[in-house]
UniProtKB/TrEMBL annotation:
Keywords: Cell membrane, Hydrolase, Membrane, Methyltransferase, Transferase, Transmembrane, Transmembrane helix
The protein, known as: Leader peptidase (Prepilin peptidase)/N-methyltransferase
Residues of the Prepilin type IV endopeptidase peptidase domain: 108-210
Compartments in which it is found: Cell membrane
Transmembrane regions: 12-30, 79-97, 129-147, 154-171, 191-213, 225-245
Membrane topology annotation: Multi-pass membrane protein
PANTHER family (UniProt xref): PREPILIN LEADER PEPTIDASE_N-METHYLTRANSFERASE-RELATED, TYPE 4 PREPILIN-LIKE PROTEINS LEADER PEPTIDE-PROCESSING ENZYME
Amino acid sequence: MSAVLQMESVFVFVLGIIVGSFLNVVAYRVPRGESVVAPRSSCPSCHTVLRSVELVPILSWLCLGGRCRHCGSTIPVRYPILELVTGALWVATLWWIPNWPARVAWAVFWVLLVAVAGTDLTSMRVPNILSLPGAALAVGLSGVCGVHGWGQTLLGAVVGAGVLFAIHLLSRGSMGLGDVKLYLSIGAMLGPLYAMESLVMASLSGVMVGYGLRMSGLMKKREPMPFVPHIVIGVVVIAFFGHPLTEWYLHNLLATGV
């Protein structure tokens, strides 16, 4: 790795975790109909306004031991996780995506996914104020920045949302409409084939994690589970490893060429 790429990676990671810190605010406040700009961040338990040193991404949570320094209440581990995931995805985009316009498109898309994963974790909701403008932005950026051609972008959005909507109808609402709207963005960025592959990966992740949580007693039998984090896992796997996985499947399981 060149020295320039190393410096770019550090800069992108730091910027990513700062953005991730803001996404934590979005995830907590948007489902509650609160402003993400004001008032200043405070402890949800004791309502003490937090100082700047208590808001340093990842480090503050580690130094505080995951607890509020004023009242001792637990700070959910999702805070440093969302920050770390945002920074890591931005660095991975820098490494994997060859040109800057496409990198910008993917960086914006990751912000949308992490924000929605956060709202799903905090409230089991995918707010329209995030999913619908995010879909328009993803379609526009995918086409303009050359992630896909316009035809593939629009087809991906239609196929992604269409398949999820069919599942929504067949499952009688078990698959929420919020996930359907989110797949407009995912289909636009991944294209129709990879969008469907990401759904398969998300389902596998959801089944394995859900089964593990129920077997361990951490989740009741019919207790609902946020699905968007599993969608994010599926999208990340396919975005960075979709082609090798498809080749492996075709060559090793179907014994055909690509």
